[in-house]
Amino acid sequence: MFLRTLSGRFLLLTIIFVMVAEVMIFVPSVARFREDYLRERLERSQIASLTLLAAPDAMISLELQEELLDNAEVLNIVLNRNEMRELVLASPMPAAVDMTVDLRQNGAWTLIRDAFDTLINGSDRVIRVVGAPVKGGGTLIEATMAEGPLRNAMVGYGWRIYWLSLGLSLAIGLMLFVATRKLIGAPISRVVTQIQNFQSAPEDAKKIIQPKAPVTELYQAEQALAEMETQLNQSLLERKRLVALGGAVSKISHDLRNILTTTQLLADRMEISDDPRIQRIAPKLVNSLSRAVNLCERTLSFGKAEEPTPELSKFPILEMFEDVAEAERLAIGDGDVQIDIAADPTLSCWADKDQVFRVVSNLTRNARQVLTARGTSGLITLDASEDGQSFVMRISDNGPGMPPRARENMFKPFEGSARVGGSGLGLAISAELIQNHNGTLELIQSDDMGTIFEIRLPKAG
């Protein structure tokens, strides 16, 4: 279980990497140890030979010869001096010489190769070691020796290196383990714990993480997590408000529908009046009330699900534009905002008339409210045309254009309003209604020259 943690794996990898590094160091170091061992034996052999040469008549006892050879750890010594090659000290040979090691040719790869050869095959061999005497004590010195003690010394040296490497690996790994736990493991655990706490109550803004990791990368990760949690928290709160608003609107629409139904019955009786003005206004009033009742019905269904599927029918676009314009002109009253209509009287489209009316009316109302708020003259144009695949409607005005924030969030509920006090629901609902027709609602232009919205409704399907 421990090795499945980040710190545990980091500790294991540290030990492995340090051991690998020590192995890479061990190979040349053991080769150098072998070379130093052999050179030391040659130096001892040279000292032993000088002892013999210093004796009267170059004669010493056998016991002293054996002691000198034992001290030098060699079997015999040959010294080239004054152009003479002389066997200085000798003892019985246990076996024939198996190989010669010339320390005058000690390239790196040669030393490494010979070191491994000694470790593998050096148990019972007898070798001759050749080198140059120190301090000019001759031209060449040779020593014959058993290779077994050399191999044993190399094995002992290797084990010392191994235990030292293991101790260093454990010590370094432990230090790195503690540092990793403090600098990386603890912040990651904190992030995991915070995610679990936020998951239990994502609507609680107090559970949003506060970035404070000491490592730059982890701090950036905490910042990104905090931004994500903030956006999720706001989205959940907005959804909660929308649910509450949907319930309230459904209740209001239910009562408003009953009120409008009664008003519609009264408007029906107005149609039988003899007053010409009432006869002219009554049909429009009845149509407006019918739309209001229908809107309440659909609002109730919207509170249960989404906008209903469009009920397609063929209707003249010009007639719909005129209804929208007349309703807005009543709202304008004596204001300086004008509404112009540019549509072919013969142009008709297949769509849900009530839903398209809602969209065009909403866009026209938005333009009228912006122009009215300016207190200067303005112009709204309702234009309709067609191409090979679509019916095209454009609602344009010569207002100041939409603010940047409104353009960025224009189809998001509660965020896309271009005026103070607006809810931003109109454009969101309008976009959904047009999408249900497999059409598009796009902002074509919005700058100091004015704003243009374009509706495209497909001809087929």
From TrEMBL:
<dbReference type="InterPro" id="IPR036890">
    <property type="entry name" value="HATPase_C_sf"/>
</dbReference>
<dbReference type="InterPro" id="IPR003661">
    <property type="entry name" value="HisK_dim/P_dom"/>
</dbReference>
<keyword id="KW-0547">Nucleotide-binding</keyword>
<dbReference type="InterPro" id="IPR005467">
    <property type="entry name" value="His_kinase_dom"/>
</dbReference>
<keyword id="KW-0472">Membrane</keyword>
<dbReference type="Pfam" id="PF02518">
    <property type="entry name" value="HATPase_c"/>
</dbReference>
<keyword id="KW-0812">Transmembrane</keyword>
<dbReference type="InterPro" id="IPR004358">
    <property type="entry name" value="Sig_transdc_His_kin-like_C"/>
</dbReference>
<feature type="transmembrane region" description="Helical">
    <location>
        <begin position="6"/>
        <end position="31"/>
    </location>
</feature>
<keyword id="KW-0067">ATP-binding</keyword>
<feature type="transmembrane region" description="Helical">
    <location>
        <begin position="161"/>
        <end position="180"/>
    </location>
</feature>
<keyword id="KW-1133">Transmembrane helix</keyword>
<keyword id="KW-0808">Transferase</keyword>
<keyword id="KW-0902">Two-component regulatory system</keyword>
<keyword id="KW-0597">Phosphoprotein</keyword>
<protein>
    <recommendedName>
        <fullName>histidine kinase</fullName>
        <ecNumber>2.7.13.3</ecNumber>
    </recommendedName>
</protein>
<feature type="domain" description="Histidine kinase">
    <location>
        <begin position="251"/>
        <end position="461"/>
    </location>
</feature>
<dbReference type="InterPro" id="IPR003594">
    <property type="entry name" value="HATPase_dom"/>
</dbReference>
<dbReference type="InterPro" id="IPR036097">
    <property type="entry name" value="HisK_dim/P_sf"/>
</dbReference>
<keyword id="KW-0418">Kinase</keyword>
